[in-house]
Specification:
Layout (H helix, E strand, L loop, with lengths): L1 H7 L1 H29 L3 H18 L2 E5 L9 E4 L5 H9 L3 E5 L8 H8 L2 E3 L4 H16 L4 E2 L18 H8 L4 E8 L12 H8 L5 E7 L8 H21 L1
Parallel strand pairs: 1-7, 2-5, 2-6, 3-4, 3-5
Antiparallel strand pairs: 6-7
Helix pairs in contact: 2-3, 2-5, 2-8, 3-4, 6-7, 7-9
Length: 248
């Protein structure tokens, strides 16, 4: 039955994949002209991220149930990570500078997209890159542009979160930057993109479905001068929200 469904909805997934490529090219090119004529601004960053994310959610049938983001000027948003779809969601709902893997620069429009959104790329195998990333995160928040990063560092099916990386919590604690925990949970746990599954293979199975249902919850901002305590509190809050979503 699953195979039959995948075949029937393959054209829908193909149309959606082509749209993702198109909208990525469109907002990046417009953003580049904006950058060249007016320079970088928070308005540019919000327009590119927001337009890109919201367009993909709409076209790909991703239905999101959510609460409101707490009102905080500068912050680091830390969601758990289930799938590449998470990136569309946070871009649509919380347009901010995103911390991602260095490989993104090799994607079509990737390097230019990083420039127009003020996003930050990190090579986790390179100590200098990690240190530079931490510096850029602080600079971004200091300049009034919030940062989004996934503290797990990779996708994880759950049911809760896996171990968090340490570096980002040290930055937040030392800079007195509030962390907003965010829980992301799919109605169908098999929507998660994990292990060695290819992007295209998962995209066709996942977004060949008419709709994908996701629940997200923002927690209250957390501030601590002890980075270990900040990490523990953030993980505990995300896990608590994930449990609440599953039990609803």
């Amino acid at each position: 039955m699953k195979i039959v469904r995948a075949v029937l909805f393959a054209p829908l997934a193909l149309i959606r994949l082509l749209f993702v490529v198109f909208i990525s090219a469109y907002v990046t090119i417009i953003g580049w002209f904006w950058l060249k004529t007016k320079g970088f601004s928070r308005n540019l960053q919000q327009w590119v991220m927001g337009t890109w994310g919201r367009s993909i959610l709409y076209m790909c049938g991703i239905k999101v149930n959510r609460n409101e983001l707490p009102k905080t000027d500068n912050y680091i948003l830390m969601p758990n990570h289930r799938s590449y779809i998470d990136i569309f969601i946070v871009a649509a709902l919380t347009p901010a500078a995103m911390v991602g893997k260095a490989e993104i620069a090799k994607w079509p429009f990737g390097a230019l997209g990083v420039r127009v959104t003020n996003s930050i790329l990190v090579d986790r195998k390179n100590q200098k890159s990690l240190l530079l990333t931490m510096k850029k995160i602080k600079e971004s928040v200091d300049n009034g542009i919030p940062v989004i990063l996934f503290p797990e560092g990779t996708t994880y099916k759950g049911p809760l979160t896996k171990k968090f990386k340490n570096g980002s919590f040290k930055i937040a604690a030392e800079g007195n930057i509030p962390v907003i925990p965010m829980a992301i949970e799919f109605k169908d746990v098999n929507d998660a993109w994990i292990d060695k599954d290819t992007f295209v293979g998962h995209f066709f199975r996942q977004l060949g479905k008419p709709f994908t249902y996701v629940t997200i919850r923002y927690g209250a901002p957390i501030s601590e001068i002890d980075n270990k305590l900040l990490q523990t509190k953030t993980k505990k809050e995300i896990d608590s929200m994930l449990k609440s979503i599953r039990n609803a």
